[in-house]
């Protein structure tokens, strides 16, 4: 019933899009600052539309469609960070968000990105934080009270589902300004293989937006609560694409890296890597990330493989079988909830805190974190 009418609604919405998005130029992403005020307003209205639309997947606890978008990241946070699939998973996630804006809220543009380098000298002055045609500004750690998203209430966070929460921010301009610099971009662009590139892009350039804005954005689990997340990740994705363009023949198929979270992180907490009921769906036939790796969007859109998303100019559209994959996804959700392990999240967040506050590269932060943990049996404060 509900599912069926959703399917019909989606099919009607999707069919014209298949043509409309067939070529890359028709879905050209632009930087936020290059949009006209009308274009910015249209984007904001579409985002508010998702935040005010009824949920379609998790009606027991979700109260709006955007809750389900956040949940897709929350539930998988321990297997989409510090793994080979980091860049491709987030590429598809940004695309899923873009598809929902377009198909469910009539948004006619493409997902804008935040050209962070352009704001590197003065983050707080960025037009992205405008209160009228932007996302609103800093809130020193409390719920934001300015801008169009001031009153957004979410119902999922790093502690689980069903509790009300809000968008918080806690600017650390210095973290942003160091992390998003031309030096960092050059360093990552110079890496010679996927593993090194994935590590590099997940470091400073990734932490710049998360740690610089702080609050929810600084929370490795619930960061998509702040819709700036998608502009930040669209930018990171663009930077990875620029890396791919340096040697496209090779880099359209170059993938690798572990498909399990950092072994040291798991060890500290005494957590076993999730069992076959979770890992089987990776489809890697081992513990190294491959092009066959399954990227799960929790029913927002169909599953895709990493191979499907390697070409940013490729054609990722929700296929007409979405109802099928959605049914399966819902049936399997209980098993998958296994992934949602709070202890792992807390450890990863603690490392993130070190990376963002002391501005230490991730590779160094992990051993420091372990040493602190062993020596004093304490963790750094978790709030960002
Ligand atoms: C950043 O921009 C703001 C607003 O324009 C200004 O007040 C502030 O002085 C600038 N900071 C720096 C370091 O330039
Ligand atoms: C938020 O709610 C307050 C109180 O209801 C209202 O005055 C304000 O206009 C709302 N802001 C937005 C951006 O919706
Ligand atoms: C990854 O798989 C290989 C081959 O099965 C195995 O030798 C290795 O121990 C595994 N590594 C981890 C960290 O599980
Ligand atoms: C999509 O991925 C999820 C999680 O990996 C899996 O449970 C589900 O069976 C997949 N659906 C399809 C149609 O492959
Ligand atoms: C991995 C897993 O649990 N897969 C199951 C998903 O749900 C379908 C339908 O119930 C089962 O057939 C799969 O075995």
Task: Summarize the SSE layout with pairings.
Elements: H1 2-20, H2 37-52, H3 65-74, H4 86-105, E1 154-157, E2 160-165, H5 173-179, H6 182-189, H7 194-213, H8 228-245, H9 248-251, H10 263-269, H11 276-279, E3 294-295, E4 304-305, H12 306-309, H13 322-331, H14 333-336, H15 342-357, H16 362-376
Antiparallel strand pairs: 1-2, 3-4
The chain binds 2-acetamido-2-deoxy-beta-D-glucopyranose (5 copies).
One 2-acetamido-2-deoxy-beta-D-glucopyranose binds at residues 122, 124-125.
GO molecular function, one term: metal ion binding
Organism: Neoarthrinium moseri
Protein name: Tyrosinase copper-binding domain-containing protein
| Helix residue percentage | 40-55%
Going by CATH, the homologous superfamily of the largest domain would be Di-copper center containing domain from catechol oxidase
Distance between the termini: 43 Å
Q: Please tally the β strands and state the result.
A: 4
